[in-house]
Hints:
The complex is a heterodimer of chains A (838) and B (74).
Chain A: E1 6-14, H1 20-28, E2 32-36, E3 43-51, E4 54-60, H2 72-84, E5 88-94, H3 98-109, E6 115-120, H4 122-127, E7 130-132, H5 134-141, E8 144-147, H6 156-169, H7 180-194, H8 197-202, H9 205-213, H10 217-226, H11 230-248, H12 252-271, E9 272-274, H13 282-290, H14 293-335, H15 347-363, H16 366-382, H17 384-397, H18 406-413, H19 420-426, H20 433-442, H21 452-462, H22 467-491, E10 503-505, H23 514-548, H24 554-575, H25 580-584, H26 588-604, H27 610-623, H28 625-631, E11 635-638, E12 641-644, H29 646-676, H30 678-690, H31 697-705, H32 711-720, H33 732-739, H34 745-756, H35 762-772, H36 775-803, H37 807-827
Parallel strand pairs in A: 1-4, 1-5, 5-6, 6-8
Antiparallel strand pairs in A: 2-3, 3-4, 7-9, 11-12
Chain B: E1 11-17, H1 21-29, E2 37-44, E3 47-54, E4 57-61, H2 63-66, E5 69-73
Antiparallel strand pairs in B: 1-2, 1-5, 2-3, 3-4
Amino acid sequence: MRRKLKEIKVAVAGQPNSGKSTIFNLLTGGRQHVANYPGITVEKKTGTYHIQEHKVFLTDLPGTYSLTSYSLEERIARDFLLQEKPEVIVDIVDAANLERNLYLVFQLAEISIPLVIDLNMADVAKSRGFQIDTEKLSQEIGAEVVPTVGNKGRGKSKLRQTIHRAYETKKSPKKINYGEDLESILISLEQLLSKDTNLKKRFPLRWLAVKLLENDSEALRIVKKYSKNGEEILSYVEKERKKFISQYGEAPEKTLAHQRYREAEKIVGHCVKQIRTKPKTLTDRIDMVVCNRFSGLIILLGTIYAMYNLSIVQGYKITNYTWPLLAGLQKFLVLLLPPEGFAFDPLLRAMPLGVIGGVIAVLNYVPIFIILFALIAIMEDTGYLARMSFILDRVFRYFGLHGQSVLPLVLGGVYVGGCAIPGVMACRGIKDEKARLATMLVVPLMNCLAKIPLYVLLLGLFFAATKGIMMFFIGTITIIIALGVAKILSLTVLKRKESAPFILEMPPYHLPTLGGVLRRCLERLEIFVKKIITVVIVVMILVYLLINFPGLSEERKAYYNNQANQIKQSFIRKIGKDSSYAKLLAGKQLMKFIGYRNDYRAATKGIEKEEAKKVIEQKFRQRNLEFFKIVKKGKYELGGKKIKDKDAKKVHKAYKKLFNQRRELRAEKKNETIKGSFLGRIGIAMEPFTKRLGFNWQVNIALISAFAAKENAVGTIGVLYESPPTEKEERLEKRLGEKEGGWTPLHALAMILFMAMYPPCIPTLLMIRVESGSTLWMLLATLYPIILGIIFAFLAFTVGNLLGFTGLKMMVAIYVLATVFTIGVGFIKSEPKVKIKT
Amino acid sequence: MTLDELKPGQKCHIVKVNAGGVTGQRLLDMGFVPGAKIDVIRNAPLVDPMELLLKGYRVSIRHSEAKEIEMILL
Ligand SMILES: Nc1nc2c(ncn2[C@@H]2O[C@H](COP(=O)(O)OP(=O)(O)O)[C@@H](O)[C@H]2O)c(=O)[nH]1
Ligand SMILES: [Mg+2]
């Protein structure tokens, strides 16, 4: 009989870079689940394992140096410990960095939950010549200590057993003694607090007393909220703080921190022996090259280029191989839909078609994301990411950004070809709230992959001779504008946001483990795919409605149906009513044949090998012999004899005519539908205004439809400038060139610049909403690029025409203008930080 | 003297941390406390920020924040 297992709640805490993620994975064996803490973007990982008759439920807390309420991560870690009250805390301690790590140990101990110290990186400590007396350390802290080597999996079962033992014995760790002066205040404060039964029931009082004395905002709030005599407590605290400051000339929180370090130093003195000193560690030697003025910059540029090349360029190549799989899936799904009609398709076909297309298009990018996420994980795990920030902080800081902004911008497409979605996701790493938001808001200005097709189309048409240089201008003007915008945002709307100091640990270099990298990569991919797919489905439905409704009037519908009938009748006339094929293709059979022939063409397209072709033909022959005769234009084998079937040939010829007429009719209908749709009406209504930007209503519609996904711009232009009905499709470049003879390079430049500034696609906007936690930022991210786009398009078209500049000259003018502007705002000093001197 | 005036290769003892608020707390939490010994390892390729060795680990901070830290040269 199976008893229900008893659950043990365990929290995993630790300072950043201590190997927390590694140990968490080790303990759970990968059985884990990633989510966000409610309402915020900090990842919450949970996982389980079994030991004896218990099921251990682990929660990974964010890595923090301390437990104050100054940063989001620290507040989360603390709230979890206080509210969820785990039965055991495992603190992952970097053995090679014991003194600083003990600072957190002492704070965890004050929460009075049984504590287990995982002395991780035992190998690193040993190689640095440290010998740690774990017995003694355990005595001094009042908690069991287990040495581990996380990346090698050493110490796993011992750690699990120790956690279990800590749960059974329920022993509280030792609390640090802050020295007589502070202790006397703390003790009396604790006594005062203990009179309040509500507080006593809910919170560890020693911890609360310490935090109150530190003037911690969270602790003050707790007292106000839960205590009946909160006023009395707070005024007591206030009085004691004042007294302390006037007596010692220093705020209690500082003295408390000093005492923790003093204690840490003492314990390290007792427990750690340095038996060897290593003059230069490997990390030192690597850093001499990586952070060097010359080689450092070269390595940095090389790394950025390699990341871009591996993920965007090579990843794009991989999509050539994965695309057939997705196309196959798409084909399969489409087969499940109701078949198309002659002139009108059923709604249940047309709408899902758009949705499936949208989802498949996004999934197509998955290889790129896998490579990107893996590369980021490697950069994080090795420790190079911190160096990148170190090197670049100086540049970015001028523009209100942060050294850590580099990665999001690279991912967004620093030159050409990136994707804003992982770019926005990567902003998570930026600790400075102000710089994080600024980065997130400008990442979409980078040139994502989807902006490229329109550039290519227009450059080919209007800038054929100067394509390369134009591409360079487009590729780099976006980053110049992004820096300027970031600065302006941080001087205005982001002015009041918290700006964290740049105090960044430079962790020792580690070789990343394959498992660790893969796991991180897949975790992020899962989050991405889940979020994006649901959004894309909704968006595609909306877009479908917008470009198809209110739809054609009954009259026009009747007109198209009438046209359709005439096409069919003329087809039957051509093949002759008496032909044996006439009956075969009558009524519903005609649609069946159309489907058959489309499949046949799709199946044989691009197939060169005779062998392969034969197999396919055999299949179609079996599917419908009569149809097969027609698609073979009357030349086929029957019973070993070669047959020339004149009737079938005639049918084929007539069908070609029908095929083209049907196409023309459908294009006309689609064009009229779009023009009359909600979106079309908006496009037409805006024309008087957008004329000054050089956009006609077709362009308006194309640009609006790009909102769902930028690839749509070229697609919609393609529909609006539908090719004249021949079986050979002319390339869009040619069609556009013929139909819009009035366009000049300035028209094209205006469109290109508008596209360069284009607002983020809807999946990106959603990501911004999620990552910033606010709809307002999402709206700002939508609006300001539109305004910028209008300004630049106006400059390019109207001002360009006034000056009588050529396209290239105007591009150069705008480029210079943007550069001067950005350098100018770079020099504006951000307001000096308010400093509270104590 | 304040920490930002030091050049790579110099060492010092912290005397006092003047910053309060977030910066002050972050500095405390990372081990910038009176008496702590600091080795200046290097400046970034573009001069700012600077990399320090403190309590056995490496940390980089901007000169503007280093200015908040009073020290004596060793
Ligand atoms: N040498 C060594 N490396 C480790 C150990 N534990 C983790 N690492 C490596 O240290 C790096 C950072 O680990 P991670 O778990 O991501 O640290 P976190 O920031 O605390 O989550 C990774 O490259 C790990 O493979 C260990 O015990 N010894
Ligand atoms: Mg981690």
